[in-house]
Specification:
Number of strands of chain A: 41
CATH architecture of chain B: 3-Layer(aba) Sandwich
Number of helices of chain A: 30
Radius of gyration of chain B: 17 Å
Order of helices and strands of chain B: EHEHEHEHEEEEHEEEH
Strand content of chain A: 25-35%
Strand order of the largest sheet of chain A: 4-3-1-2-6-5-7
Radius of gyration of chain A: 30 Å
Structural class of chain B: alpha/beta
Largest sheet of chain A: 7 strands, antiparallel
CATH topology of chain B: Rossmann fold
Number of domains of chain B: 1
Oligomer: heterodimer
Number of strands of chain B: 11
Helix content of chain B: 10-25%
Shape of chain A: globular
Largest sheet of chain B: 9 strands, mixed
Distance between the termini of chain A: 61 Å
């Protein structure tokens, strides 16, 4: 029997979801919609009768205080209506299933079969709990009743533009939705043999294309030659595993390639002497920087799933940032959701408990006209909403605070949004074990395996076109954060009990990647039929390659297996042994006993040919553009400041950030919002780990938890952690070399601004770039990594982890290529020596002095909407700001600094305005009255650059008058100028070099602008 | 009494603020133990061995069928008698956020009134749920008016007329964060709400920086009568949406750097633990 249950809001109570949706219809250009009423749909199938359906509904599916429910027996009639008026179930008169009349339109939405539906899973679990054993299958959906004028075309626009994403959902208009049960499938043990040994180059290339292997000819040839040596043909599972292991996503072949680099002059001719062969960008620029700065507190860099540094004598910190760009473009919720889940698993994969998340997002302009959208691309607003909701869902449910982030907008991100997800973990030193032993079991804990996410690793390594959404639908997944939360708790318990010898996460490439890497030395024998499936019908290669989420792989000595299983049972999470590590160096895959794949681990991991790539850089482009922008203009400075504050990159992100829990775990002491009304912007987050550490048993003599005792020596200051980010997109021909410096500086500066020690900062690099096979794209990437090296060495900050996402290009139906601006994210993890001496950006007291620290340049963002920070640098042109940051930090540790804010987007003027908004106080500033203003050697002192300069290195610092002399004495010899003072009157006033009043703006007007309202 | 009262912090699958609840209880002088509901169901631990119960925040079972719903069902079906006995014995029970939602949806808050329980006020039928297995509840926690999850700091004012043992004699307001999407306290009808108020069961209310009433965002979810927390007529069961366990030390205060101090959440736990210790 099949039942359909519809749960809606009772009359008299607000339908908050419907109200919120209605508000969003205007952005779709739909003006005739009066109301949207949202109902939840549940489909119940099995050996059920009316009483059982009724009981399930009453106990599990609706909230009788504010909701009502209608139960239909499908193909028959409505059986029950439950709600305000009816205290008892009763039979209603038969009614047809026609769902709407003329004045309304009805849209019903359901997930496609096979897409993770955690609500349906919970419903089945709930039915077992209350003893309704007959429920065999459950599915869910939503119903939207739209009142108002809607044409059929408008209904489809509403459905596809707001209510459903056809990549993962189906919808109907004015028709009842069929339940999205997965069709019953039979077990399918088919294994194909694919002939390659006799294939010519043409056939090899065709094979790579047909199976979407994303391998180039050289790689295909290497595979063919391997099988010639082996004297047999590959199976499908072997070929898929090779494609996954050798994918850009998993092996970073561009960063490891041999690159022939050359620069050309403005005339296009090669510059003599500029040719250079680079043997691996990773080795030459990234790892080399880490080795060169050689910090003793780096515990693990570029080896484990996350970079690890020392926190103190007993604890380490693990930090990782990942991107999930391609999936987020197609299905923003699921893409971002599983992006967060994936990076959290990286941290669990080094035996750490995640303690904070970060997110940096790049979207197309929110006001992009619909007709400017490339074919097959979701609107930026839709992508932004979905991504935000996906991050919210995963992070909040995992109970990990989201403490730092940024959002950037640029047309270049319209087809390729960027979603950077970071996670920080804490682990006791020595707790991470990563040496599997022969005989250890290969144990998988977490969610079940389904067809979700097949070929995600290869998918993320290719360019997208307007059909990608249809073809790659299975590459997108919806996460199940509760499975991951329980897997986390199981791993932490297993870690503390010493039950495993190695651990890694299942990410891109699924078991193939995770087990493949763990068994790289020992080899392993795997029995694929032992993997619990979400549904039958997966072929062996699909089980092996599935990217079903929320799975961790552990190497477990057989003696510990019962204990681990007991832990998992107690936490409602599945665990199963898939096979064991053998020691023979081969990966043997079996299904029901027979061998379906066998590969040498050495060929799998070392057999990939090195890529040889060509890179070119057209010299002088950035300089030329900089000159073109240098002419002065007649700006209304007050208006320009307000326009800058209101611009999407700069304005308050409170409506997004408040959707993330930033307080859970009780450690966030410099929060995303600071100041008098908890609304001013924060430069970086600071975490106070006293409770997290106390959890490990650092308690006082009587065994009681004592947060002060957590520092173990109450006389010494309590250290903390700062997290910050610097991001630089190569917009408008900005030089990627200078861009790397800017990103490194911004990340470091943000960290220093809240109180981190500049000599204890570690960096993560995340590159998002276009197609590296195009020499001009790769040329930019080479310059960017060069900049990373030079900047990291200059700041003494090692890279500990990084990731690249390439091929961020999109070919639209029009055949045109849409590439992103090359984008570098630098994330910084800094140690704060004393959480009692951290600093926030809000002004604290009238009468305090305000200083500008750092030198100004002669370039600036000229008009609010132009987004054209102008920077040009050449390698070797180093600006050492470390000495300045060290001195500023010393002043902070001495308690001399009351507020500090970095000058980033919009320069000094915006920074000052934000300090005013945060503090609820005013500022009276005069250029050139105090110590002379430091300006870059090439420039001259001018009002406009001083106000709006976005070049790196500048901070505004508030100092109490009684500490002013001491502060100034410490800063002698460094770029530091007194600008004026904090005033009680809520006005920002800036007087220029010639005594002209440049800015005079009231706090309320600045705050309005910063919240997006221009008066 | 010198021994610390043993206090059970109940972990359901998806609970995530259990560690903070543990820290709060320990700072307040209790001996906390995190126990998964499965351990209670399996008989590995017994509720009766503890002096106080905390249901902490999180997303039990993903909140898939409504916030706290499945946890509530699990408690009613698997632990109903033990929990009823625990409450009837007068031992304190604290539900925070998801724990509050579970207690309400399990029919344990505002709670069963027993004949002659000696409760002040005119506790009327509106919120009585005599049989927890066939509920006709009068109150719920439903979607925020904003239709979204929000994390922000709020001020809580204790109701001096409440029988609640947790809020009794609190010296000042509590300032702490909320972090939820379904925290709007709503009554079936006006009478049920009036009865709840008359009995003093609205133990904690959102208030603005300039005093009551609290408008958005100070009342972050649209709760009727600004109700942030409710207790049972006996006063030993309290549920609240905000997180007092996230304001345990002065450094947690969002304006710590501006010199603002006080309004910690800790006294609420201290009241509960002291009460449990004195039983």
């Amino acid at each position: 029997m099949l039942y359909r249950v519809e749960v809606s809001t009772k009359p008299g109570f607000p339908d908050a979801r419907g109200e919120s949706l209605r508000g969003q219809t205007r952005a779709l250009g739909l003006t005739g919609i009066e109301t949207i009423a949202v109902s939840d749909l549940y489909f119940l199938e099995g050996n059920l009768d009316d009483a059982a359906a009724s009981r399930l509904t009453e106990t599990l599916l609706y909230d009788p205080v504010v909701e009502q429910a209608v139960i239909h027996r499908i193909d028959k009639n409505m059986i029950h209506r439950r709600g305000a008026e009816d205290a008892e179930p009763k039979k209603d008169p038969p009614r047809s299933l026609r769902l709407s009349d003329e004045s309304t339109c009805t849209i019903e939405v359901a997930l496609r079969p096979g897409v993770t539906d955690s609500v349906a899973e919970s419903l089945l679990a709930g039915a077992r709990l209350i003893g309704v054993a007959g429920l065999a299958r459950a599915a869910t959906g939503q119903r939207y009743v739209i009142a108002g004028r809607t044409s059929p075309a408008e209904a489809s626009r509403l459905a596809e533009g707001l209510l459903a994403n056809v990549v993962i959902q189906t919808y109907t208009v004015d028709e009842p939705m069929a339940p999205s049960f997965i069709p019953t499938q039979v077990v399918d043990a088919t294994v194909e043999v694919i002939p390659v040994t006799d294939a010519d180059d043409e056939r090899l290339a065709a094979l790579s294309r047909e199976r979407r292997l994303s391998l180039d000819l050289t790689e295909m040839q290497a595979i063919r030659d391997y099988y010639r040596r082996e004297g047999r043909e590959p199976t499908d599972i072997e070929l898929e595993m090779l494609a996954q292991t050798w994918s850009e996503h998993c092996v970073h072949k561009t960063f490891k390639a041999i690159i022939e680099y050359e620069e050309s002059g403005p005339d296009g001719a090669p510059v003599p002497g500029s040719q250079r062969t680079i043997d691996s960008l990773l080795k030459t620029f990234i790892r080399a920087a880490t080795e060169r700065v050689n910090k003793p507190w780096v515990r693990s860099a570029f080896v484990d799933n996350a970079g690890i540094i020392a926190f103190d004598d007993c604890f380490d910190l693990a930090f990782k940032v990942e991107t999930h760009n391609h999936p987020s473009a197609l299905e923003p919720f699921g893409g971002a959701n599983t992006g967060v889940g994936g990076v959290i698993r990286d941290v669990i994969g080094v035996s750490a408990r995640p303690i904070a998340n970060t997110d940096i997002l790049c979207f197309g302009p929110p006001d992009l006209p619909f007709d400017a959208l490339p074919a097959g691309v979701l609107h930026p607003r839709r992508i932004a909403d979905g991504v935000t909701a996906g991050i919210e869902d995963y992070g909040n449910k995992m109970g990990i605070p989201m403490v730092n982030g940024a959002i950037l907008y640029d047309e270049g991100y319209t087809a390729n949004p960027l979603v950077f997800c970071g996670s920080l973990g804490l682990l006791p030193r020595g707790a991470h074990r990563n040496r599997p032993q022969s005989g250890d079991l290969v144990v998988v804990i977490g969610g079940r395996t389904g067809r979700d996410g097949l070929r995600g690793a290869t998918f993320s390594s290719m360019e997208m076109d307007h059909q990608t959404g249809q073809i790659a639908g299975t590459a997108v997944q919806i996460g199940h954060p509760i499975h991951e939360k329980q897997a986390l708790e199981a791993v932490i318990q297993a870690r503390d009990a010493g039950l495993y010898t190695a651990i890694t996460d299942c990410g891109a490439g699924g078991l193939s990647s995770a087990v493949g890497e763990m068994a790289a030395e020992l080899g392993a024998e795997i029995h694929l039929e032992r993997a619990p499936l979400k549904y039958a019908g997966l072929r062996p290669w699909e089980i092996w390659l599935s990217e079903a989420q929320e799975r961790m792989v552990l190497a477990v000595p057989p003696a510990h297996w019962p204990a681990l299983r007991a832990i998992c049972d107690g936490l409602d999470i599945e665990a199963f042994a898939l096979g064991h590590f053998t020691g023979d160096g081969r990966l043997t895959l079996r299904y029901d006993g027979r061998i379906v794949g066998e590969l040498s681990a050495d060929f799998l991991h070392n057999g990939i040919p090195r890529r040889r790539l060509r890179a070119t850089w057209a010299r002088g482009e950035a300089e030329v553009k900089a000159e073109a922008k240098a002419e002065a203009s007649n700006l209304n400075l007050n208006l320009n400041l307000r326009l800058l504050l209101a611009s999407p990159d700069i304005r308050s992100k409170e409506d997004v950030v408040r959707r993330y829990d930033h307080e859970v775990q009780g450690a966030t002491v410099v929060k995303p919002f600071v100041g008098r009304a908890n609304a001013g912007p924060s430069d970086a987050a600071v975490l106070d780990l006293r409770f997290a550490i106390a959890d490990f048993g650092f308690r006082n003599d009587t065994g009681a938890l004592d947060p002060q005792f957590a520092i173990r020596n109450p006389q010494s200051p309590l250290p903390g952690v700062a997290l910050s980010a610097g991001i630089a997109p190569a917009r408008d021909g900005m030089d990627p070399y200078a861009m790397a410096w800017a990103a490194v500086d911004e990340a470091v500066r943000n960290c220093v601004a809240v109180g981190a020690d500049p000599d204890r900062i570690a960096l993560l690099d995340n590159f998002c770039w276009g197609n590296p096979n195009l020499p001009d794209r790769l040329g930019g990437l080479v310059r960017c990594t060069q900049g990373c090296y030079d900047a990291a060495v200059a700041y003494g900050a090692p890279f500990i982890s990084g990731k690249d996402s390439l091929n961020n290009e999109y070919t639209g139906a029009d055949g045109k290529k849409h590439a992103i601006p090359g984008t570098l994210l630098i994330s910084a993890l800094g140690i704060v020596p004393n959480v009692g001496r951290t600093v926030t950006s809000d002004l604290k007291a009238a009468g305090d002095r305000l200083y500008l620290v750092g030198e100004s340049a002669s370039s600036h963002r000229e008009a609010a909407h132009s987004h054209k920070p102008l920077l040009a640098m050449t390698p070797g042109q180093k600006r050492d700001r470390l000495a300045t940051y060290r001195t500023l930090h010393a002043a902070m540790r001495a308690g001399l600094v009351r507020a500090c804010h970095d000058c980033s987007e919009g320069g000094l003027a915006v920074a000052a305005a934000e300090m005013v908004i945060g503090g609820g106080l005013g500022l009276e500033l005069h250029f050139g009255v105090g110590a002379p203003l430091a300006v870059a050697p090439t420039g001259q002192v001018q009002d406009l650059p001083l106000l709006f300069d976005e070049a790196p290195g500048r901070l505004l610092v508030e100092v109490a008058p009684e500490h002013a002399a001491e502060f100034e004495a410490q800063m002698v010899g460094l770029p530091c100028a007194a600008l004026g003072e904090v005033i009680a009157e809520p006005w920002l006033r800036v007087t220029g070099l010639t005594g002209e009043l440049l800015i005079e703006a009231e706090l309320a007007a600045l705050e309005d602008a910063w919240r997006g309202h221009i008066r | 009494m010198s021994a610390k009262p043993p206090i059970l912090i109940l972990h359901a699958t998806g609970t995530n603020r259990d560690r903070e609840a543990t820290w709060a209880v320990e700072l307040a002088g209790g001996a906390a133990e995190i126990v998964h509901v499965n351990q209670l169901f399996a008989g590995e631990r017994r509720l009766a061995d503890y002096r106080m119960l905390v249901l902490p925040g999180g997303f039990s079972y993903g909140d898939d069928l409504g916030a706290g719903k499945l946890w509530a069902v699990a408690l009613r079906y698997r632990l109903g008698d033990d929990l009823a006995a625990f409450i009837a014995s007068g031992r304190p029970v604290l539900g925070i956020c998801n724990g509050f939602q579970a207690l309400v949806k399990a029919g344990l808050l505002p709670g069963v009134r027993r004949q002659g329980s000696g409760v002040r006020g005119q506790a009327a039928d509106g919120f009585l749920t005599p049989d927890p297995c066939s509920l006709a509840p009068a109150f719920t926690l439903t979607r925020n008016d904003s239709a979204r999850f929000e994390c922000r700091w709020v001020y809580l004012e204790p109701n001096p007329a409440s029988p609640c043992i947790f809020t009794r004699g609190l010296p000042e307001l509590i300032y702490c964060p909320v972090a939820h999407g379904e925290g709007k306290f709503a009554a079936r009808d006006a009478k049920a709400l009036a009865d709840l108020e008359a009995a003093g069961l609205a133990a904690l209310r959102y208030t603005g920086p300039a005093g009551a009433p609290a408008a958005y965002p100070w009342n972050p979810n649209g709760s009727q009568n600004d109700i942030a927390g409710v207790c049972n007529p006996q006063g030993n069961v309290l549920g609240l949406m905000p997180h007092p366990e996230d304001h345990l030390i002065p450094a947690h205060h969002p304006r710590y750097h501006r010199g603002e101090r006080g309004m910690l959440g800790l006294p609420l736990f201290r009241n509960g633990v002291q009460y449990a210790g004195g039983l």
